[in-house]
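== Sequence entry ==
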Amino acid sequence: MGRAFKFEAVLNQRQHREESARKVFAAAARELGKAQQVLAEMENNRDQCRRDLRHKQEKGGYAMEIILYARYLGRLDLEIKDQQDRVAGMAEEKEKKRQELMTTLKDRKVIEKLKERHLADLEKKERDLEQKLLNDAAISRYQRKY
């Protein structure tokens, strides 16, 4: 066969870069999922606390207890807002990592296309050479007969 693909090292490097980008993206996606789960738990906790507060108000609970619930809900709202900001930032970061992954994927595919073309060219050259040899053999056999 002909020469080896001269950009094989570049292809290997781009495959490695793509694997790294894929791992970074997966980690960002996992972290975002965890942060979203924490946010959902916080919101569920707030909703439960609000139901408890309404129940206490309807049953005529102590004023001090109601004040404590109100303060806790205020603080919980602030924490939820902070977590929402964190989730939004992580979502942006995840999108950046996805874009980087797409870029590395495209880079690798470009080199793979070059390799495919190179292999197709080598195969065509081999077929042409083989056909030429067959033609020469047929011509020489024909010439020996006559």
Summary: The first helix runs from residue 8 to 59.
